[in-house]
Amino acid sequence: MWTTKTFLTKTKRGNILKIVREHYLRVDLLCGSAACVICPHKDDELVLDSKPESVCALFEDPHYLILDTNVVLHQIDVLEEDALTNVIILQTVLDEVKHQNTAIFQRLLEIIGNKKRKFYAFVNEHHRDTYVERNPGEKQNDRNDRAIREAASWYATHLSTNNAAGSFPQIVLLTDDESNRNLAQEKGITCCSVKDYIENVNGFPGLVDKLSKNVIPESCSKDALYPAHLTIGQVRTDIKHGKLYQGTFHASRDNFLEGTASVSGFEKPILLQGHIGINRAVDGDLVAIEVFPKEEWRKPSDIVLEDKAEDPGDLRKWRQYCGILLPSKFPGATRHLFSPAERRIPRVRIETRQSDVLASQRILVALDSWPRNSRYPLGHFVRALGPIGDKDAENEVLLLEHDVPHARFSEAVLACLPPPDWTITAQEVAKRVDLRDICICSVDPPGCTDIDDALHARPLPGTTSDGLKRFEVGVHIADVTHFVRPNTALDREAALRSTTVYLVDKRIDMVPDLLSSNLCSLRGNEERLAFSCVWEIDENANVLSTKFHKSVIKSSAAMTYEEAQLAIDDAHRHDAVATSLRTLNALAKKLKKKRLDNGALLLASPEIRFQVDSETHDPIEVQAKKIVDTNSMVEEFMLLANVSVAEKLAAEFPQCALLRRHPAPPPGNFTAFLKAARQQGFEIDVTTNKSFSQSLDEARLPGRPFFNTLLRIMATRCMQQAVYFSSGSLTQEEFYHYGLACPIYTHFTSPIRRYADVIVHRLLAACIGADVTHATLLDTKEAGAVCDNLNYRHRQAQYAGRASVALNTHVRNTPKPSPSHTPNIPAESGSHNEQSHVRVEWASALKKSSSKILFKSRVETEAAVVLAVKRNAIQVLIPKYGLEGPIYLPEDKFIYNEEENIQTCGDTVLKTFDELTVRLSLDSTNLQHRKLCFQLVKPHIPGFSYEAKTEAMEVEEVKEVKEVKEVEKKRKETSELKSKKKSKRK
Description:
By secondary structure, the chain is of the alpha+beta class. It is built from 25 helices and 37 strands.
C-alpha cells in the first residue's frame, strides 16, 4: 500500500514548485514483543520481554516505555544507564533526534544495538496503522507528537488483542510536554513525566542525579540578571535585514568577562564584554550579534584575571564538563555548585544525594539550561571519573576537556582489519612498482612505532645539460588507504578522530594498533606497501621530474635522528645506508637554503623533554629539545613531497583537492611584537614574509644567544593557524602558505596519524589510476565539512598535547615509559606549533609508576625572560624548562605605560625581553588547578621581590615546627605508655 506526500517549495527565481512523493505503507512490520500473539516473529526478532519487570513504584504492572523526542534529546544520560529496559523507540523519534543532534543520535543507536538493554526501534512511519498525515496548518512538531500518540495507542490495542486480560504489558508514554500528556490521556494512553518516573525507580541509587533540568522560558523576568534571548524567528528576520550578524563566540583565555565573535564581512573579530554583552554565551556557541555604533566601540582589556579558587567565573559552553563538587555550607544539602576544570566555564548548579562520595572525585557534569534569573547555569551529574589527583582520572579529564575521542575501537571497526598474520600477496606486488632491492631507510625519534615515512637517494648515470650530477630521491609513505577503505566503520572512525593525539605518557591512535604500529608502520627489514613520490634532482637540488606510484618496499634500516647523524659523520662508513643519508643531507641543505631565500620563516616554540633519574625514576629535569641536522634533512623532503602532491592534486581536481593554507597575519598582530623589538634597538620589517625572515636573521644581541630564539618564539605567536581547505572554496591567491613561502601545500606524508593525508592519498591514487574515486571524495560540500572537522580535531589535539606537558611538568610525575613520537612532517614554521602532538623525548626509560610531584618537594630559582607586559602582570618564560607563567603586579606599586608597554616601580622598569631571576614553586591551594607560581627575585624591588633570606627563615621555621611536633608526639606516647602500665597494676 502507498500514499502520497505533497510539498510546495519556492525556487530561487521565486516560482512555486509542487513536489509529490510516494510514501509506502506496510502491514507486516513487526512489533518486537514476546507478548504479541499476532506478529509472525522469529526468535531473534523478539526484543521486548513478555513480562517485563517494573522498576518504577508508580507502575506495579509490567509495561513498555515509549519516549517522545525531547526525552531522548534531554535525558540521554539517564537512558544510557541500565535502569530502563523494554523501551520502544519510534522512527518518528529517531528521525527527529538525527535531525537535531547527531551526537545524541549515535549514542541512542549504541543503546539500541546493546541487546541487554532491550530497546526496540519500531518503523511507525511506514506502518499502515500508525502513519499519520500532516493536517493543513499543523506544525511539524505537533504532527510528530500526534504520530507518537497514535503509535502508543496502536501498541496498547495490538498487544491486548487475543491476549488474556491482564497478561500483556501495558504502554507508558514518557513525555515532559504537559499538552502532549493531556492529549494522550484523552486517548486513554497512560502517561508520565520523566522526573516522576525516575524519582520512583528502585534499585538504582544516583539515577535521579542524572536528570536534566528543564529549560525555564525566556519570558521569565523575575529577578532577571540577563537580557532575554530573541526567538529563532526574530533572529532570522533581523539577520536577513542586516540588524543582526551571525558569528561564532570565542571566550578569552585571559579574561572570563570578555570574548570575540568571528563575523563574515568584518575584517577583525567583534569584541563582546561583560555579563550583559556576552549574555550567557559559551565558548563555541553560534550567536546573533548587534553591532553598536562606531563611537561606542571599545578595545580588548589588557588585564590578566588571576585564577583564584574563590573566583565565581561566568559564561561559556553547552556540553559535558569535568570538574569537582564544591563543599556545601549546609549539612545534608542536595543542591551543590560544580566547579569545572575549564577556567572559561562558569560554575554549575546541580542536585545530587551523593555529595559525600563525590567530594573526592573528578566528576562529569552536563549543562542543561541557563535561566535569566540565575547567576549560574543548571546542569546534572553524569558520572564519576576517579579520585582527584589519580593519574588515570586526570588523563581522562584531559581527554574529555579537549573532546578527544578515546574509547576503545568498536567491534565493527576491528572487524575491518586484516588478520594479524597478513602478508603481501604476489597479486598485490604485480600491481605495484617493486622497490624492495633499493636501499631505503627511515629516520625517527627513539622508540617510534608508527613510522609513516622512509627515504632513499641514489646517483643516476650521466649528467644534466649543464653538466650537473643527477640523483633519484624518493619519499615512501605508508599505504594506509590499502587497509582503510572508504565508508567502512574503520574509515568513519578514523574520520571522526582525524588525528593521533600524543600525550606525555600515552598515544591515542587514529587507527588501531595493528595498522599504526605493525602492518602500516615502515619497520626495518620488513616488506611493506607504500605510496612513493620519486624525483629526479640535480646536485643543486633542482627538481627535474616527479612521478608517483604505489610500491612495495623493504626498509634497510629504521634509525633514530642521532643514529642517522652518526652514520653521516662517520668517515669510515661507506655502506649504502650511510652513502644514501649523506646524499639526502647535502641536498636537504640546498633545499632549505632555497626555501629561506624565498622567504620561508624559521620560527620557534619552547619545546621540552623530561630527564629522569635512572634509579628512582623520578623526573629531575625538563630541558630544551636538541635538534640535529637529520631532523632538518627529513623535514625538507617531507615538505617537498607535500608541495609536489599539492600541485598534482590541484591540477587534476581543481574543485575538491584537499589542501593546507597559512594566511598572512593581519598587521595588527605585530603591534606589540614590533614595539618590543624596537625597545631592543631592532626595526623588524613585516611587509612580506621574506623581509620578515631577513629581519629575524639580523636581530641578534651580543652576549645574549637566546635572544634571537626568544624573538622567533614571540614572532610565532603573531601568526594565524594553518588550516585545511577544499580547493574549490577559495581563489588561487588564497592557497598561499605564508610560513613556508610556497603557493600551494598539502599533507601527504603522515597517513597513519592524520586523516587529511588519507584523503590526499585517495585523491592522488585516483589521479594516477591506482585506485577508483568515489562520490564523497568529489563532493565539494562534503569536502568542506571534512576540512572543518580536520581543523577542529587538529586544534584540540594540539591543546591536549600541551595540557599533558603542563600536567606532567607542573603537577605530577610521569607514570611509565611510552616513547612519544616526533613525526617527520615539519612544524610548518609559519604556524604556531603545527605538530598535532607533543614533542617530548625521554632521557631514560621509566620502569615503574611514581606519584611524586615534580615541583612539590622543591623550589627552583631560575633565569627568566619577559614575554609580554600587561596592565596587571608580566608574562615570563623559563628557557631552561620551556615553562611560562604570569607574575602579577600590584597597582599600588607599579605604573603601567600603555603607550610604551612597560611597567615601572621607582627606578625599576620592566619591558619585553628583559632578563629576570624568578622563583618557581607549586601552588596546590586549588585542587584541580595546581599551578606553578612565579615570583620575582631580581631585579630587587623592596616589599615585592622574593627575599632569599626569607626562604632560609622558612626552612628554619619548618624545622622548628617538626621538632616541636616530634617532642609532643614522644610526650604523648610516654603518657599513653604510663597510663597502660598504671591500668595493669590496678
